[in-house]
Every structure is written in C-alpha cells, then in structure tokens.
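Researcher: Please predict.
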Amino acid sequence: MDRAIELFQKMHPQHFEGTTDPIVAENWLEKMEKVFDGMRCPNDRKVSLVVTVLDGEGNDWWKHYRRIHFRDRPVEAISWEEFVKAFRQKYVPHSARIKMRVELERLVQRNMTVPEYEAKFTSLSKFVPQLVSTEEDNCYMFQKGLRDSIRAAVILTLARDYSQLVEVATLIEQDQQVNL
C-alpha cells in the first residue's frame, strides 16, 4: 500500500457525506487541512487522498463535478486549490457567505453567555474575514454585539487585544451575575 495512503488512514480522517450546512462543510475542510499538515502531505497528493473519504452525496457530487469540469482528468492532475474552490462553490456558496456576513453584522449576545457568544462570533467570522481582518476590527465587531451592560463596562477598560477583550467581558459578566 502507498505510504501516503497508510499515513492518511492512520490520521483517521473524517468522512464527508455532503451537507446543506456550510459551517459543517467548512469545518470538514479545515479538519482535512489539519490532517494534511500533520502528515506533511504535499499539495499534489491531497486531492487523491481526500476523495477517498467522500461518501454518499459528497462522492456523487465529486464524480459529477470531476466528469463535467475536469473531463475525467486523472485525480493526480487536479490541484488542491482547484478542489477547494469547487468544494466551496458547492458547499459554502457565495449566498451562504453573504447570509453569514449579515448574521455576523447583526449578531448580539442576548441570552448567550460571553463564551457562547464568542464561539458563535468566531464560527461566523471565518466566513467573512474581511470584516475582522485586523485586531481592531475583530475587537470592534465582537464588542458591538455584547449586551449593553457588559459593553459599557468593557469600553472603559480600553482592551484592544481580542483575547483580553473576551476575558474582560467574561469577568464582567461573571461579576454582574454574582451581584444580581
């Protein structure tokens, strides 16, 4: 058996059966990147390995896409960048990214805890990196969605580092809960 295939299988890559959830699709793609990084996989081997874990609708999509767009070109001749572009067009389309952009722009903490809000913020942010391309933008977008009482207190701290901002917001929230 090919050494790359053996190593790939030892990494226990997650299978992909297709999805209508762009977050699930993007997370799967990120997991594949981690597997490839962990095995130091060269780009010219990634597609031939990743297609072995496409199942069900995911595999049906790939076979159809490859036949139509790559004219059944050998899988080894298809670049990882081409695969990722095709995958995102199908499973993380522009319309989904626009929807997530709007969702991020409108995201407010409401009944979420700060850690829950931060997790949702981070999940949406990866789809619209242009909104959070700098530390300052990231902090601004996060801060504007916090509950008013937390945001007002956070602003006074002048926290400009995202990790520090999240930590301060969490501590303020905990303090407010204790002092209810």
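Model: The two ends are 64 Å apart (CA to CA).
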